[in-house]
User: What shape does this take?
Amino acid sequence: MSHTDSRSVLLHQIYSEQNSQFDRFVLGATLAACAYLAQTNPFGKIALNIESLYLLSLLTLVAAAYKGFRRIETCITAIQTNGVMLGHLEMQRNWDADALRGSLEIWRDKSSSAYRWRNRLLLLSFILYILTKVVEAYVR
Assistant: This one.
């Protein structure tokens, strides 16, 4: 392995570790926010009221947490599939590696989709919560 190859492998390893730590941090913060909102939000009958808006913001945050779990799960599966594919390539079993390449792309796309949806749902939940606070100030 040349000096350039080892730097690129090291850089990829650092990126993977930081990416996974960030995903776990966001998931932990999201779950903490879910617990906080579940304890502090007023809840009542479901109707067109403030309590239902609070519930909607909480449910959106729960959906973001679910997508966070899915993101971590799909990343782990993609890494596992990539490892198996590289093992086949190292053993000169290119036909097996080619079959796994399509599966790897599917897992990568699922991971990317979970990442985007998690972020969208986090933003939507934040907007809904702030909007509910503003509307509550005018209604009550």
Residues 3-139 form one domain. DSSP finds three helices and no strands in the chain. The radius of gyration is 21 Å. Residues 94-139 form the longest helix (46 residues).
